[in-house]
Amino acid sequence: MKRIIFASAIFWLLCSSALLAQAQGLDFYLYSSEHVQSIENNLQYRYFPFANTSLDISGHSSIENRLNFDQESKNSEFKLGFNISQKLLQHSFYTDYKSIYDASALEASPYVNKTASLGYQLSFKPVDSLSVSVFSNVLIRNEQDRYVNNSSLSSDGWWLGANGNYAAELGALQGGLSAGAERKKLAWEAFESGRMGVYLNLFTNNLVFDTSININQRSDDIYTLNAPSGDMLSSFYSPSEAQKRNKLSFNGTVQYIPDDSFIVSFSDTYNQSKVDYKQNTNRNNTDSYNLSSVGVNFALHPRLMLESSLSQSINNREYENTKNNRLVEARRLENRIVWEYMDSDSLIVSASLDLQATSYPSDNHNYDNDLLTGSYRIGWKHYWHERIKIGMWLGFAQSEDVYINSILSANNRNITSFSMQPNCQIILGDRIALLQTYQLKADYNDYIYGVQTGKENTFYRQVAYKYNLIFDTYPYIARSGDIRWLKLPFRNSPDNALLIDMNYAFEENQYADEVADYYSLHTKNRRYTAAISLRHDIKTLFWTLTPKYTWGTWQEYSLLFGVAWQFNNASLVELSVSPYGVTTEELDWRSSLNLNLRF
After folding, report:
1. Distance (Å, whole) CA 278 – CA 284
2. Torsional sign, CA 511, 515, 517, 518
3. 328 assigned to some structural domain
4. Of the candidates 371, 438, 448, 374, which has an alpha carbon nearest to the alpha carbon of residue 409?
5. Model's pTM, two decimal places?
6. Domain residues for 2?
7. Which of 15, 154, 254, 590 is within CB 3.0–4.6 Å of 266 for a Cys-Cys bond?
8. Tens digits of residue pLDDT in 533-576
């Protein structure tokens, strides 16, 4: 019955041409696969029946079936609001209905929860920089009894709140203050919360200052559902716990720009979260995090740029059981030089040093760990010809992973990594492109106490490459975004554009253990992938087809077919079908339908 009423309301709204609509839309989404089936839709509608008034209607519903867990969930919500605007005041009258349904094979009966509310909000805005609002709601809730069939639990209550915002501007200086408080009380749900925020900004030609502080506090009463006992005919809720959460956050950045070629920036972020329980104090915890950084960007020459940054973070987590206390400190130093030695040709050199130290100060530092990593990369891009671009990335990294205490010191190790990633892009005319990417990678894992513990050093290497042959009538040059190629002559983009991307990829991974003075290979896998992607854009109609086949150590079959049509400027309908499986006889047919109507 509810679905019929909801559908009738949508139909009436769509057909009410006499109503002057300001903003309205209907969204529908459907997804189906072997394991999950879901439907979701949203409705937004606003129109102005009288002068200085507006009517807001919104609805949301979702249905999800998890077939592998034999679980079904249904959620729906409907809101109706009527607003009256005056010079300084705005009155809002609204009603809301929510329904939750959750059934599972693991539960004897489904969980059903229905909540209705009726509310009023008064907003006062004497000037653009100041606004104050207060609201009040009356709530009625009905919940299915989980222990007694054909029985329900009822509750009524209220929800009050107030919010305020103030902003001021003095020359290049801007600041603001916001605050709010709420209190909600039902038979088995109650909370109170408060928040306050302050921000201050300064924008000048040489100095940028941006900072904000936010404080949040919330207290919840936690209730437990109890089965009926004695002569009781229904279950009942009883208070079991009280929880208090406090959050503090700070964000600040300072940027000094003495010259267009020199920029210095400082930033700091601090977050603290504290949770306290009245009864189960063992769960009390405090989590604090602070990140500070300084960075310098310096143009040594119009073609030479230096970027340098230094950062430090501290994450401290404290528990009532102090043995679980943990402190994580991380430091990072990074330098990067970019040299454009010729027009569009560049050389990039970067080096970074990372240290992460984890300690357990209240547990005799038994599990303390230090991880030190040095990483170095060189990147090169060169236009061999105006239509041939080649590039190369060379990487080298060393890591030392050390546990301080002998309990875990057998895992202490050094990791050395090498990588090489060459690539080449060739364009023929303005529509055809050949792309080539390659990767060679090797990791050496050497245990520091391998001789004493008997742990064998390991070795991993990978070789991979991928080829793409692209035909694009858009054309490809216009879609590439390459600054140098965009200077070449190319045809205008047609309303009817076709893209064909044929690609072939290979990847092999090998794993070995060190034996005497050589490595003995024990595991390897290979993967070949062939795919072709077709996309056709016909003005406001788009369709794509991408079959893909993977073979080697394992095999996969997949296909993506999608079509989209944009109409009435902002409305859109999308349909996709994507079967996937390891054999053609056992395919998981995944499909989706998305409809966005704006009218």
Report:
1. 9
2. negative
3. no
4. 448
5. 0.87
6. 1-30+38-67
7. 254
8. 999 999 999 999 999 999 999 999 999 999 999 998 889 999 99
In a domain, 47, yes or no: yes
| 75-134 pLDDT, tens digit each | 999 999 999 999 999 999 999 999 999 998 888 788 899 999 999 999 999 999 999 999
Q: What's the domain count of the chain?
A: 1
pLDDT in tens, 234-265: 999 999 999 999 999 999 999 999 999 999 99
| DSSP 8-state secondary structure symbol assigned to residue 146 | S
Which of 102-116, 473-487, 499-513 is modeled with the greatest confidence?
A: 499-513
> 1: Cβ–Cβ under 8 A, 6 or more apart, which residues?
none
- Evaluate whether 298 touches 305 at the Cβ level (below 8 Å): yes
pLDDT, tens digit, for every residue of 167-186? 999 999 999 999 999 999 99
**CA proximity to 197, closest of 210, 183, 217, 178:** 178
What is the rounded CA–CA span in Å between residue 390 and residue 209?
Answer: 42
Contact 449, 410 (CB under 8 A): yes
User: Do the beta carbons of residue 355 and residue 372 sit within 8 Å?
Assistant: yes
**98 in Cβ contact with 74 (< 8 Å):** no
Under a CB-based contact definition with an 8 Å cutoff, are residues 425 and 433 in contact?
A: yes
Please give, one letter per residue, the 3-state secondary structure of 354-390.
EEEEEECHHHCCCCCEEEEEEEEEEEEEEEEECCEEE
SS3 for 483-503 is: CCHHHCCCCCCCCEEEEEEEE
The CATH number for 2's domain is 3.30.360
Mean pLDDT value across residues 485-512: 95
Rg of the chain on CA atoms, in Å: 31
Q: How far apart are the two ends of the chain, measured CA to CA in Å?
A: 27
Q: Identify the burial level of 365 via C-beta atoms within 10 angstroms of its C-beta, where 0-12 means exposed, 13-18 middle and 19 or more buried.
A: exposed
Return the structure tokens found at 6: 């909801």
Instruction: Give me the residue label for tokens 């009258």.
Output: 93
**Is 581 inside a domain boundary?**
no
Any domain includes 185: no
Q: Any idea which residue has 């875990």 for tokens?
A: 408
